[in-house]
Q: What sequence folds into this?
């Protein structure tokens, strides 16, 4: 029995089920016989109430018995499975070897060190069982847990660190499951790893090793080199419009070595040629950013790479691949209340989006009366200038546009009423319009200004550079006061604190509203130089959301567009891949049946460049359980049973906690009637 | 008579000591609402006393004067001439008493009947007794003679509970036999259909009788003060029923309250005087309280 209960002595408490029965027998109603004058006053209700009372009493007794049983079982803490697996094979010792083959292990001795450690760990006396798991971002059973060590030794020869990330927690969990299926008095897990701290991030503390399973750590960590450079982060454009504007490509470098490095060369390669080069200073242990400004002037895919040209750099960890997908033109649908006349908001918007040659926008202008759902489907961005009410089919098409990643820009003016706007667009609008406010000074000049701009918003990215836009010159005479904007992000505010530009994520797309339209009757924005780039950036940012992710990491499944499949692997590191999750670092081409292609860039996970390490004691303290004094392997303290049993323990405790008030309520109710 | 178990002289004494008794002696204590139309119709000899100046000559008994050569005045006692019918329910349900060794409802009712008869006789009213259950067991017509009281008390002495309650049938039969209007005093637990009882009482009212209903109930019947599982047996039908009093109490009290209200309201509707007697209340207190209230009404 001790194999099934942590505290079997508490099962004596089962005798307590007799207590409620005895109490019931002792205190049950003695039937007294009384000759009464008449039964006419209770002959109808008596039978019903008596039957109800007897049922209630039986239920109460059952509840009390159940409470006693549950209390005894809860304190006894049952195992639902016999420890060590009652039906599994039995060995004198069982050991699972967990070998780390993530990219970071390249710096920790590589394949030779791994094989040596595996051979060492697999050396067990006869009658023992040993198995081998290899893990990076995924866990693979290389050799099953069995009495023959030869498969393990054979597999050890082929263990080679790859380019994947690290998921130590998943590997240990799988090893623990394998050990649970066998019976043994000694169970242990040997971890051969560099114990990269980021590899244990997936552990949430929701499970522990089987009681009695011992964790042994074979730490493979090379001594710090004099210089060791790698990339730890990157921010690169993935989808952008063809606008001949410089874009930032930012990477972060780290020097894990002991020596300071001067003039570390970094190069930005674009379409297989170096386009920009710079050097950075890297003190020992420091992490510094490097930024390139590049104009992506070639429409379509641009295979790009940032590479650290340094002899001390980790070959795999010093390159970052990305694909800047430049859209040749963005289809924009401008819907105005009436055909654009001179001087109105629609005029300024259409003119700004299509000022002449070289514009990235393909503008199609429609009025509220003439716009059709097909126009919306064909567009990436829809701009509603002073329009509130549209045909329901058009509104539905706009909603679908947002859900698939497009953009809608509202520019409400005098032609919009708050009621009509909310009635039509409440499902997607960033806010509700309350009233149009007028801001005028006593002298009659417009005095509202933009007081706060969220510089972290990608819309304002182009304005972060010096002399690239001055919002303070814009004066707002009128603007909308709004409500119900909690779900939206405020990109800019007026000087009185009211929102000026709101953005709301709807599905995959962005819905933006300017609360003062570009109309000279409302503001002087269309007459300021900031207007055109602000409108272009707003439309552009809304449009690029429709594009697919073009850069990912090893082991992370990139969201492939529908209809596309992997055509070839053009990487210089990984030549073949069966599924997107197996893709190695480099560029991979996805094609669809129509011959269209997308280039997908895959990189080594940045976590592999992380130099932080777990201490073996930390890992053991997090996962191991103490062994019970009787040697049964069961733990003595709370949470001592395995995960399944612990769940059962919680269920028992919860049932007990529910039954007690139920019994109290029923007993009280029965006594009162 | 002093040994009769139904005559409680303590009760009588307490009632006699009350002020209201003086009034009832003259007019009949049960006649508080109306006076007898036959007052002075007959007189009964009481005693002789010597003549004194001022006495009327016509009251001198000349026969005595002839024998004794002295003047004696013949004195008479006035009497009211109301025939009082005491109707006693002696059904099996009246045999219920919640206190062991204590009064049953029939004991209580019989003592009440004895007291009433005694007073009626004492004030020169004719008292009669009818004992019934599902049929009329005994019928003693109202008589003015003292011997009638003895008969009544003897009958009460031997009355035992039995038989089912069929008040309405019996009352109708009694009503049909009454030729002269008088006072009807019904002493019962009324455990029958209230509508039929009221119909029978209406029969009496129709004949010009004055009707008083003394409703006798045991405290246990009113309060239902049982607390353990009990098997109740109907005294009249013998039917047994297992009841959980805890769960039944509320329902029972609602039912009995409704029954009592129906009786009282029904009696008021036919202008019959209704009084509920709880056998837990001492008879003298309950009776004197009622008489006092009735005298004030007169």
A:
């Amino acid at each position: 029995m001790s194999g099934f209960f942590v505290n079997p002595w508490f099962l004596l408490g089962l005798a307590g089920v007799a207590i409620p029965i005895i109490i019931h027998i002792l205190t049950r109603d003695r039937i007294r016989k009384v000759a009464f004058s008449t039964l006419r006053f209770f002959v109808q209700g008596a039978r019903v109430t008596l039957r109800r009372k007897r049922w209630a009493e039986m239920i109460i007794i059952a509840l009390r018995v159940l409470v006693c049983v549950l209390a005894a079982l809860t304190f006894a803490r049952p195992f639902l499975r016999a420890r060590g697996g009652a039906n599994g094979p039995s060995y004198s010792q069982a050991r699972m070897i967990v070998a780390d083959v993530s990219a970071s292990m390249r710096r920790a001795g590589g394949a030779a060190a791994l094989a040596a450690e595996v051979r060492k760990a697999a050396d067990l006396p006869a009658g023992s069982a040993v198995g081998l798991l290899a893990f990076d971002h995924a866990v693979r059973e290389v050799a099953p847990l069995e009495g023959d060590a030869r498969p393990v030794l054979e597999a050890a020869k082929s263990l080679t660190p790859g380019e994947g990330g690290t998921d130590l927690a998943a590997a240990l969990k799988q090893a623990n499951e394998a050990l649970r299926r066998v019976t043994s008095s000694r169970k242990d897990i040997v971890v051969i790893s560099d114990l990269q701290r980021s590899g244990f991030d997936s552990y949430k503390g929701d499970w522990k090793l089987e009681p009695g399973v011992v964790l042994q750590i074979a730490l493979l960590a090379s001594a710090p080199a004099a210089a060791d450079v790698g990339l730890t982060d990157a921010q690169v454009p993935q989808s952008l419009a063809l606008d001949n504007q410089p874009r930032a490509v930012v990477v972060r470098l780290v020097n894990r070595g002991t020596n300071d490095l001067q003039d570390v060369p970094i190069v930005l390669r674009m379409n297989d040629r170096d386009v920009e080069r710079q050097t950075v200073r890297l003190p020992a242990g420091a992490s510094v950013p490097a930024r390139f400004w590049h104009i992506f002037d070639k429409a379509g895919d641009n295979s790009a790479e940032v590479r650290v040209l340094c002899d001390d750099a980790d070959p795999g960890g010093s390159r970052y691949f990305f694909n800047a997908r430049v859209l040749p033109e963005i289809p924009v649908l401008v819907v105005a209340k009436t055909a654009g006349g001179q001087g109105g908001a629609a005029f300024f918007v259409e003119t700004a989006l299509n000022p002449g040659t070289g514009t990235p926008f393909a503008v199609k202008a429609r009025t509220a009366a003439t716009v059709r759902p097909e126009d919306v489907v064909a567009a990436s961005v829809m701009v509603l200038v002073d329009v509130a009410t549209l045909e329901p089919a058009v509104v539905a098409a706009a909603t679908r546009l947002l859900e698939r990643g497009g953009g809608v820009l509202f520019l409400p003016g005098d032609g919009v009423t708050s009621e009509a706007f909310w009635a039509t667009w409440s499902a997607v609008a960033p806010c509700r319009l309350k009233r149009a406010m007028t801001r005028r000074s006593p002298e009659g000049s417009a005095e509202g200004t933009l007081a706060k701009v969220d510089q972290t918003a990608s819309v304002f990215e182009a304005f972060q550079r010096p002399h690239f836009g001055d919002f303070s010159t814009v004066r707002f005479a009128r603007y909308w006061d709004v409500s119900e904007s909690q779900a939206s992000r405020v990109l800019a505010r007026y000087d009185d604190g009211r929102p000026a530009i709101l953005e709301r994520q709807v599905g995959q797309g962005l819905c933006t509203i300017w609360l003062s339209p570009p109309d000279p009757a409302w503001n002087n924005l269309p007459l300021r130089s900031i207007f055109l780039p602000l409108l272009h950036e707003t439309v552009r940012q809304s449009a690029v959301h429709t594009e697919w992710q073009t850069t990912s990491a090893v082991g992370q499944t990139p969201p492939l567009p529908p209809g596309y499949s992997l055509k070839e692997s053009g990487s210089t590191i990984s030549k073949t891949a069966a599924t997107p999750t197996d893709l190695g670092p480099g560029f991979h081409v996805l094609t669809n049946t129509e011959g269209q292609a997308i280039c997908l860039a895959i990189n080594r996970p940045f976590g592999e460049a992380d130099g932080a390490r777990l201490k073996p004691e930390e890992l053991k303290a997090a996962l191991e359980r103490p062994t019970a004094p009787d040697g049964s392997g069961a733990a003595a303290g709370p949470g001592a049973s395995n995960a399944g049993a612990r769940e059962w323990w919680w269920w028992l405790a919860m049932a007990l906690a529910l039954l007690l008030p139920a019994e109290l309520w029923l007993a009280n109710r029965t006594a009162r009637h | 008579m002093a040994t009769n178990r139904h005559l409680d002289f303590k009760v009588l004494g307490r009632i006699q000591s009350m002020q209201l008794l003086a009034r009832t002696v003259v007019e009949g204590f049960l006649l508080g609402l109306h006076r007898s139309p036959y007052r002075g119709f007959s007189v009964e000899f009481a005693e002789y006393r010597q003549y004194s100046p001022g006495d009327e000559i016509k009251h001198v008994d000349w026969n005595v004067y002839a024998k004794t050569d002295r003047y004696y005045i013949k004195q008479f006692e006035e009497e009211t001439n109301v025939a009082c019918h005491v109707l006693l329910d002696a059904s099996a349900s009246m045999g219920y008493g919640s206190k062991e060794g204590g009064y049953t409802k029939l004991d209580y009712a019989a003592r009440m009947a004895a007291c009433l008869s005694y007073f009626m006789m004492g004030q020169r009213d004719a008292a009669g007794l009818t004992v019934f259950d599902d049929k009329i067991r005994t019928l003693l017509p109202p008589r003015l003679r003292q011997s009638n009281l003895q008969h009544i008390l003897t009958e009460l002495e031997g009355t035992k509970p039995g038989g089912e309650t069929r008040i309405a049938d019996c009352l109708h039969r009694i009503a049909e036999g009454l030729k002269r209007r008088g006072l009807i005093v019904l002493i019962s637990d009324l455990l029958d259909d209230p509508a039929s009882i009221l119909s029978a009482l209406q029969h009496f009212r129709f004949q010009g009788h004055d009707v008083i209903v003394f409703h006798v109930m045991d405290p246990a019947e009113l309060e239902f003060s049982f607390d353990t599982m009990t098997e109740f047996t109907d005294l009249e039908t013998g039917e047994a029923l297992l009841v959980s009093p805890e769960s039944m109490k509320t329902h029972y009290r609602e039912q009995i309250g409704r029954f009592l209200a129906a009786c009282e309201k029904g009696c008021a509707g036919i202008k019959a005087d209704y009084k509920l007697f709880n056998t837990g209340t001492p008879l003298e207190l309950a009776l004197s309280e009622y008489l006092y209230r009735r005298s004030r009404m007169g």
